[in-house]
Amino acid sequence: MDARFTAEQDEIRRTLRELLGKRCGPEELRAAVDTPAGHDPALWTALAEQLGLPGLALPETYGGVGCSVTELALACEETGRALAPSPLLTTAVLTAPLLLALGTGAQRSGLLTRIASGGLTAALAVPGPALATALALTGHDRSGEWAGGGRAGGVQARWADGGWRLYGQVEQVLDGHSAQLLLVAAHAGGFARSRVLLFLVRGDAAGLTRVRQTALDATRPQGRVQLRDVEGELLGRDDGDVLPALARLGATAAACLAAEAVGAADRVLERTVGYVGQREQFGRPVGSFQAVKHRLADVYVRVRAARSAAYYAAWAAAREGHGEQAGGLALAQALEALAAAAAEGIQLHGGIGFTWEHEVHLYFKRAAGDELLFGPVHRLRAHAADAAHVFEEAGR
């Protein structure tokens, strides 16, 4: 593994940081999360037109840039620093790889080209509490129970009048209330022969109802998706198995999420160091006290270690068979680093750290919210250990 970044990778990071610094400051962030969509469409357009961000990891055949997971993770690190509310995670990280892996030729050419241009946003409609299981981050579920188990709950699909019709409800779908395209996980075949398939649903489809839900982390908007006799287009073929594809996606998603968390942790640490260097107590800067130095030094070590793990996970995710354990472990380490950095930031900012007017608390909510969606941390590590047969080796 060559740990050095190329000139192109450094340029992606620099350009994106400059753009987000101008277009996604604290005031712009608050204004964006308060909109019905929960993000700024103008910023998303700028990210697409100036940087090609939605298609960064898509092949050039479909209008993408043709980069790897590493470049996408570096972009996520920068969006994580700013807590930029955008459809990047749901569109480019969670949905586009599934379209590329499972879609027919017509589906790939018709949808990925629009995604790469920024003209189409997409969301993966998997029940929020089950997202980590669906992506095989906290365990393998080869039966698809996370999607409703074929019983009441989740989404059911049946073939009628020459097409697929979807029924059901999905809670806590990231960007589910605003995405122009939904990739819905649904059970087909009834209870006895139930299997999970993925269906494409237009955001304006008849019978589709979407409502934005209140979320702990407002920078990650979530929606409730209700389907009542909604027309759906099967992704790929009905004899395919989508569960392995979702599990493979988990390695990429974990690497990008870890990079996001590292970027957020680095930014809140940077803000805290700057603040304690200015705030005075007993006639001297708070940052000059040895206890404060030790606390921030501990956070610095956590962030640096998490960054190394995230970069390795991104490298491994681009290589078949390398990324499964690395992604989950990197995500666990990054979430812990972000939680520690945000907690110290709130403490060391004193009376203003926990107030709504200050943005430090947003980083703490990002750490807590991501652990609820993609963790918890101890299960991420336990699953990685099981996949690597650590305990089996120790028992011999």
Automatic annotation (TrEMBL):
The highest taxon in the source lineage is: Bacteria
Domain named Acyl-CoA dehydrogenase/oxidase N-terminal: residues = 6-118
Q: Where is the signal peptide?
A: none
The membrane-spanning stretches of this chain are none
Residue ranges annotated for the Acyl-CoA dehydrogenase/oxidase C-terminal domain, each copy included: 255-385
What InterPro entries does UniProt report for this protein, alphabetically?
A: Acyl-CoA_Oxase/DH_mid-dom_sf, AcylCo_DH-like_C, AcylCo_DH/oxidase_C, AcylCoA_DH/ox_N, AcylCoA_DH/ox_N_sf, AcylCoA_DH/oxidase_NM_dom_sf
Q: Which cofactor(s) are needed, names only?
A: FAD
The record's keywords, sorted A to Z, are: FAD, Flavoprotein, Oxidoreductase
- Family, as annotated: Belongs to the acyl-CoA dehydrogenase family.
Question: How is this protein named in the record?
Answer: Acyl-CoA dehydrogenase
What organism is the protein native to?
Streptomyces djakartensis
Q: Tell me the name of the encoding gene.
A: acd
